[in-house]
Predict the structure.
Amino acid sequence: MLTIRRCLSEKDIPRTPVHAECLIGEETLLRVSRSGFSLAYAPLERAEWRVFPPKAAYTPSALCADRQAALFLAYEDDCYVGCAALRPCDAWMQLEDIRVDVLYRRNGIATALLETAEQFALHQGAWGIRVEASDQHPILCRFLEKRGYTIGGMDRLALTMTPEERQKPMMRRACALFFYHVLKKGC
């Protein structure tokens, strides 16, 4: 049975990581039009495994200490299987991380984590949730689109100078995509 708990203390942070690798078989294509941004997807020549480490900008212990931030942990029959991390950012809540162990995917765990994050954001009085994704992670992009998130912006240079990206030609480097989901009516 799936349970989601808010981590309130550093001692509750799981010591075992979630296996976050993904088998990616397509690439994300960003299209810009007069009405905004849209995404399309094209198959890769061959599928490849990619790993998306958590951002260094936040730490689980800092999220536990900040009552306006939250770290939600998902458990399937007392086995740690996923997490979602939120922090306040202006009038929005920034979803810093959402991940589900590779062995437990496609069971609604990410959806349950995102719904919990959305409820927390509403309770905190945020307008909505903002997520920074990458065009190198089409699985996350498709998931966010399916959940009603829209692209509000992009930055093609934000990720280009990381050590991993500097090994690629400039045209193949990751692009940051900013997804938004408004939760309050009238905003």
DSSP finds three helices and nine strands in the chain. Helices lie at 60-65, 109-123, 138-146. The mean pLDDT is 88. Residues 62 and 122 are 21 Å apart (CA to CA).
